[in-house]
Amino acid sequence: MKIETLPTAGDVARRGASVFEAHVLARPDLVVALPTGRTPIDMYEILAALRRSGGFDLSRATAFNLDEVLLPRAMPQTFFQFMTRYAWEPLGIAPGRRFIPDGETGDPESECRKYEDAIAKAGGLDLAILGIGADGHIAYNLPGQAGPRTHVVRLDPITIATLGGDLQPPLGAITMGIETIRSAKSIVLLATGPSKAEALRRMRDEPVGEAWPCTFLRDHLDLTVIADEAAASQL
Ligand code: PGA
Q1: pLDDT tens-digit map of 146-177
Q2: C-alpha to C-alpha distances, 79 to 101, 103, 106, 134, nearest whole angstrom
Q3: pTM of this prediction?
Q4: Does the Cβ of 37 fall within 6 Å of ligand 1?
Q5: Helix or strand or coil: residue 235?
Q6: Residue 158 Cα, ligand 1 centroid: separation in angstroms?
Q7: How remote is the CA of residue 97 from the centroid of ligand 1, in Å?
Q8: Which of 34, 38, 39 to mutate to test the pocket of ligand 1 (most atoms within 8 A of CB)?
Q9: What percent of the chain has pLDDT over 70?
Q10: Average model confidence (pLDDT) for the chain?
Q11: Which region, left, alpha or beta, applies to residue 193 given φ > 0 means left and ψ of -120 to 50 means alpha?
Q12: How much is the pLDDT for 92?
């Protein structure tokens, strides 16, 4: 794994945006896995500004969300709402090429299989852009709940609290699996702030296993971690 350390979170956002842009220039019809969370927001805003100035075009790309919570789509905590606001609309991703697991489904297991089929039908992932949880989770492959392919997880109270609002357990989610993510030709992981420092250290040093799901990515052939100095402080 390649680690790029940059001074600030703003630098991480700019670098993430320029790596993303380079992939899109090389392959305008790329298939990309996209994250929600605080970390990618600045990157999305940079790319949206670039798009407004005519320098970035995702209209031929296909985007698959990494995960979705099992809540009604109209609720502000859903990733459907997040992506509409920060990524799909501002980046101009065509409505027919925005994929996210259906968080309203009555049959989450079959939704997982459908999601895997949709990724395969799109030709597989060219690029996955990821965040990382302070506990080392990747998408919603939480400690002890990592799985190879798209699957259902139970969110723990700390993860639920990060969603905001007044959500209470039990709350489930659908997440791409570790092998789904690892099948991407290139992976870019963004990490900012001191709360991610332990997870990055474990990602590099811990024996590969479920306790720190980020370790499963370590031997991917094209994995770049872009971290600010705070997140890289234990490396
Ligand atoms: P964050 O979430 O960007 O809000 O820190 C990261 C993640 O859970 O993957």
Answers
A1: 999 999 999 999 999 999 999 999 999 999 99
A2: 9, 9, 18, 19
A3: 0.98
A4: yes
A5: coil
A6: 12
A7: 24
A8: 39
A9: 100
A10: 98
A11: left
A12: 97
